Amino acid sequence: MWSAVALLLPVAWSAWVLRQRPLLAPLSVMILCVVTGFGAAVLRSYMVAAPVLERPMGGVLVARVVSVETTETGSLSAVLEPSSFGYLAQSALPARVRLNIRLREAVLRPGAVVSLRARLMPPPEPVLPYGFDFARHAWFSSLGAVGFAYTAPEEISPPSGFGQRLALLRMTIGDRIRSSIGGTAGAVAAALITGERASIPDGISADLRAAGIYHVLSISGLHMVLFAGSLFWVVRAALVLIPGLALRYPVKKWAALIAIFGATFYLTISGAAVATQRAWIMICLMFLAILLDRPALSMRNVMLAATVILLWRPESLIGASFQMSFAAVIALIAFYESEPVRNWTSRPRSSGFEAIISRSFTYILGIALTSIVAGTATGVIAAFHFNRIAVYGLAGNMAAMPLVGIVVMPMALLSLLLMPFGLDGPALWAMGQGVDGMLAIAHEVAAWRGADRMVPAAPMSALVLAVFGSLWLTLWRANWRYAGILPIAAGLMLWGSGPKPDILIDRDAALFAVRQSDDEIVLTSSRPSYTAEQWLRYEGDGRTARDAARSPSMKCDTRGCVYREEGRPVITFPETLGAVVEDCERADILIASVPVPRGIRDGCAAELLLDYFYFWRNGATILTLTTDGSVQILTAREVRGNRPWVQRKRTDQ
What is the structure's pLDDT at 409? Predict the structure, then answer.
């Protein structure tokens, strides 16, 4: 840590000394940025450091409730701060744990101290060497374990403290919205205000993704602009109606100040997710610019917000949320600041009936252009992280966004203002009608043929090239900006050229897959699981686990599976020690889900033998069969490296 931070001073001094040199000045500033970012990342990883559970354990858990969400099935998903767990020493106690409570009688209140019997496990490792690393995400959230409850929680002490009262207020608001509106619309409406998405059915989320409007559920820039912007407009309009104030005082600045407080309140009741924090910083910078008589929305403000976030939470850089948010904002500002668009928007306005027609047309065209620009800017990033493309996203956004902007979010603001007086019923009803309309649009668009198209995974180089080209295209103003199209095209050409392993092994050696000659993978189990879902998504394969397990080349029984295909090695997946001994005589590659003693290993005729302990030490593994008959092995442990969130496991077993 100290070496990373200590580099800052000499590099900053060099940048200051060379500030007048035409060529060295920008180079030194670039180096300073890299060193600053590296130092911030290292410092942040140490600041959030907390114990991580080393192995699965069960026992009595006494903890304070941090947050609670109700899932679509009625179970609870809670984040707790433990004060004791079984016989675990205090020094090894995780700072936070995430617990699923599937007991119907369970009740949790944020801020309360509860006691219950639970089973906790370390945060799961990636299901692919290059897959999403939940353990890394958990590390930066100080989440040291995940698990489930055996018994219903018993409240030991009631909620206390300001933070707990805010969390309880958020939970109360969510419950009121869900009960008032009811059904799926109530769950979606609560998510738009409180950020609690666990109660939204998976089918609804899938429809919203296919229609290209799932971004509505993530409280980010759109919601902050609609919420705080509506508040700014209402306050300013009300103050302008008082001539004595409007003519003597800066009511626009007063409205901006009130809007900042409103945005801060929205941040607190929405759960303050990372995307919401970014949006809050951006909106506060916009209103601060109004207070200082500067342009409210500019590329400089975007860069200031990005700088603040990357210094504060540098880990957000590699997340899809950060990348998509700033890609959309940068692209929109660059588009609307371009000369042709500025000339069109600054043309003289008409009056009368013609003005109504003109403004309606401008509004519809604005939604279309905004959807096209933002969708294009975020499409590559979404495809890289989620392996999905919403083909009809433009149609979905054009149909749904007027409802969101004109009905849903203004009614959300009005309901929050009226809720303390018990007068929020009509506003929530109107909001529910708007949400129902949005969901009907999502369902209709998602039903169109080919609406949700899956794409295979791309190498990191494809994303880097595409993002570099996009930044070059949007940040420059001279004609050479169009040279950015070349790296974008190169990145798209690299799509689908990522590694295609021939054999995939789960981190727990519980599921295996083999690539067939037709380039599709076949699974050893038809049971739906997170691992199977992620493997198929990585392949851009829309099949279910049940469909992917059907192949004449894969034969399975109670003792394991064997894969035979003409011209390819015989691959076996034994699940018992007896099956290992038997398969050693016929298999070219033997992958066992049980530990194999050294005596059996030494006498095995298979060219390659990997057992349970290999995967226990190395995590998810992929094997690639080369043309010369050798096997290349890549493990999650190799890719993850020696980082704080990677558990050290013994290698002498």
Answer: 87
Beta-bridge partners for 187 = none
pTM of the model: 0.84
Q: Which two tokens stand for residue 273?
A: 């997710």
What are φ and ψ of residue 67, in 5° steps? -155, 155
Cα-Cα-Cα-Cα torsion 298, 304, 306, 307, nearest 10 degrees, comes to: 160
Q: What is the DSSP annotation of 138-197?
A: HHHTTEEEEEEESS--EEEE---SHHHHHHHHHHHHHHHHHHHH-HHHHHHHHHHHH---
| Residue 513 φ then ψ, to 5° | -145, 150
Residue 652 has pLDDT above 50, yes or no: no
35, amino acid identity:
V
The DSSP string of 183-249 is HHHHHHHHHHHH---TTS-HHHHHHHHHTT-GGGGS-SHHHHHHHHHHHHHHHHHHHHTSHHHHTTS
Q: What would the pLDDT profile of 493-506 be if each residue is shown by its tens digit? A: 998 777 789 999 99
Is the separation of the CB atoms in 620 and 507 below 8 Å? yes
Q: How far apart are CA 140 and CA 145, in angstroms?
A: 13
Model confidence over 574-622: pLDDT tens digits? 999 999 999 998 899 999 999 999 999 989 999 999 999 999 999 999 9
CA distance 571 to 608: 10
Classify residue 96 as left (phi > 0), alpha (psi -120 to 50) or beta. Answer: beta
For the chain, the residue count is 653
Residue 215, CA atoms < 13 Å, CB-side half-sphere: 27
Residue with tokens 């990997």: 610
Helices 183-194 and 425-446 pack at an angle, to 10 degrees, of 100
Q: Position of tokens 């190799």?
A: 638
Distance, CA of 341 to CA of 96 (rounded, Å): 50
Identify the weakest region by mean pLDDT among 275-284, 422-431, 609-618: 275-284
How far is Cα 572 from Cα 380, in angstroms, rounded to an integer?
38
Residue 198: per-residue pLDDT: 82
pLDDT at residue 347, rounded to an integer:
65
Cβ 389 vs Cβ 383: under 8 Å: yes
Task: Give phi and psi for 105, each to the nearest 5.
Answer: -85, 0
Task: Give dist(CA 601, CA 574) in Å, integer.
Answer: 14
Token pair recorded at residue 466: 């595409």
DSSP one-letter string for 570-624: -EEEE-SHHHHHHHTTT-SEEE-SS---HHHHHT---SEEE-HHHHHHH-SEEEE
Angle, vertex CA 335, rays to CA 331 and CA 337, nearest 5: 120
Contact 405, 397 (CB under 8 A): no
Interatomic CA distance for residues 119 and 146, integer angstroms: 8
Q: What angle do CA 415, 420, 424 make, to 5 degrees?
A: 30
**Cα separation, 117 vs 62, whole angstroms:** 9
Distances (CA, A) of 166 to 161, 229, 266, 267, 506: 9, 23, 11, 11, 41
- Backbone φ and ψ of 631, nearest 5°: -125, 125
